[in-house]
Design a protein that fits this description.
Rossmann fold, alpha/beta, seven-stranded mixed sheet, 461 residues, binds zinc ion, Gyrase A, domain 2, Four Helix Bundle (Hemerythrin (Met), subunit A), binds guanosine-5'-diphosphate, 16% strand
């Protein structure tokens, strides 16, 4: 079957200087040959697979040099899409890469749809669905840790786990079949019940474990939503600015998420912080004052982390105490700012109010204490020990939803077993669990779901 050749700009992560035009399909090499002149005069069609060639890209009509390029030739099936792949690296900016893309598109390639490269990799059996989604997460990864999680998933760590669980369920189902086919053997039924209960418990525990990782996984993926609160003038904007300036602000360009406009991402020691409603904080200074205690409680409840700022040079006020009330039970770091000024605050009183919270003192004016604050943020969420690279995290919200559903169905199966429900009814719940888990890796997925998933990808991946 003829596979048409697709092309798109596919810029490597975290780099702006080099841009890549990637082609994939039956004519990828042929099209590149029409445009490329290597220094030694060698044709790409004669080049060995997985080799890189330096030369010029020409406009075949005018014969004029368009760009200086490096071209990688990779023949299928040992490529990301399993098809022939050519990557044209150009070191210019967006203008030159667009010129290259234009040449490629006027010489036989078609512009790839969003996610089409990854979709081909999936459809050609190169990767499973959870791996495909990991590619999307990689593109959006905001810190190295988040990237490690996505990489682990791309290597198929989650898929492996899910396959094992499905295998367990299949074994139970096989036993159930035996039980239904030979109901006259009493010991078969007894054995089946015991084994069934055991295995179903095992599956339930594994699903639970995975769900427990989802909180951290989600944070790594989406950022830790963080709200800075405090009375006017305590230093909230200064804190925001120093967090943004001392850490790489993370640029996001996820299409279709308008909320990014009012959020700012920073990378604090591997923890991506999503500073909430910073526009609001910047403009009106005081979220509590602006929307009232009740509603701010609502807004703040959605935050994973609260940075509560106090003024070292003033006595604690009613407002301060109210704030402590509002953030009760949440993850809070208390920041006592302006330590360069004369102390007015009663630290014992703060300790009393802060009880379970971590307290950090800063002078944002003199740039002191910010390191300690960052340390506190990092240790709060990684307990200082977890290396994201070694663990299987679930971070994708589709996976999380499916795991929740499969937890429900496996629990129903367990209830059924314990209440002595006829085994063929229990079988229905088990089968459903098996199907739901399969959806995570794309093994019982409907076509339209696949289209929907891949259309979320950035162009060029
Ligand atoms: P916000 O109203 O809570 O956002 O507070 P701002 O960040 O706007 O700061 C209010 C004022 O306090 C500004 O003039 C800051 O320069 C000043 N300020 C912030 N941090 C410190 C600090 O650590 N020491 C001193 N002396 N002044 C500070
Ligand atoms: Zn301010």
């Amino acid at each position: 079957m003829e596979v048409d050749t697709i092309a798109a700009i596919s810029t490597p992560m975290g780099e702006g200087a080099i841009a890549i035009v990637r082609l994939s399909g039956d004519e990828a090499i042929l099209i590149a040959d029409k445009l490329f002149r290597s220094i030694g005069g060698k044709k790409l069609s004669e080049a060995a697979t997985h080799t890189i060639h330096y030369g010029h890209l020409l406009d075949p009509k005018s014969g004029q040099v368009v760009e200086e390029v490096m071209v990688s030739v990779m023949r299928g099936p040992k490529t990301f899409t399993k098809e022939d792949v050519v990557e044209i690296n150009c070191h210019g900016g967006i203008v030159s890469v667009n010129r290259v893309l234009k040449q490629v598109l006027t010489n036989g390639a078609r512009l790839a749809e969003p996610g089409e490269f990854t979709k081909r990799a999936f459809l050609n059996g190169r990767i499973d669905l959870s791996q495909a989604e990991a590619v999307m997460d990689l593109i959006r990864a905001k810190t190295d840790r988040a990237m490690n999680v996505a990489l682990g998933q791309m290597e198929g760590r989650l898929s492996k786990l899910i396959r094992r669980l499905r295998q367990e369920i299949l074994e139970i189902l096989a036993h159930v079949e035996v039980n239904i086919d030979y109901p006259e053997y009493d010991d078969v039924e007894e054995m089946t019940h015991k084994m069934l209960a055991e295995k179903a418990h095992f599956v339930r525990e594994e699903i639970k474990k995975l769900l427990q990782t989802s909180e951290q996984g989600k944070i790594l993926r989406e950022g830790l939503s963080t709200a800075i609160v405090g009375r006017p003038n305590v230093g909230k904007s200064s804190l925001l600015n120093s967090l943004v300036h001392e850490n790489k602000a993370i640029v996001t360009d996820i299409p279709g998420t308008t909320r990014d406009v009012i959020e700012e991402y920073v990378n604090v020691r591997g923890v991506p912080l999503r500073l909430l409603d910073t526009a609001g904080i910047r403009e009106t200074e005081d979220i509590v004052e602006r929307i009232g205690v009740e509603r701010s409680r609502q807004v703040l409840q959605d935050a994973d982390l609260i940075l509560l700022v106090l003024n070292y040079a003033e006595k604690l006020s009613m407002e301060d105490e109210q704030l402590f009330e509002v953030v009760k039970g949440m993850d809070v770091i208390v920041i006592i700012n302006k330590t360069d000024l004369e102390q007015q605050i009663d630290l014992d009183q703060v300790s009393e109010l802060a009880k379970e919270h971590k307290i950090v003192t800063t002078s944002l004016l003199e740039d002191r204490g910010v390191d300690e604050l960052e340390e506190a943020i990092a240790s709060l969420f990684f307990a200082g020990t977890i290396d994201a690279g070694d663990m299987t995290y679930v971070s994708n919200s589709r996976h999380i939803a499916l795991l929740h559903q499969s937890l429900t169905t496996i629990e129903e199966a367990i209830d059924g077993v314990e209440m002595g429900t006829p085994i063929d009814i229990v079988q229905i719940d088990l089968t459903r669990t098996w199907e739901l888990l399969g959806e995570i890796i794309g093994e019982s997925v409907h076509e339209s779901l696949i289209d929907q998933l891949f259309s979320q990808f950035c162009l060029g991946k």
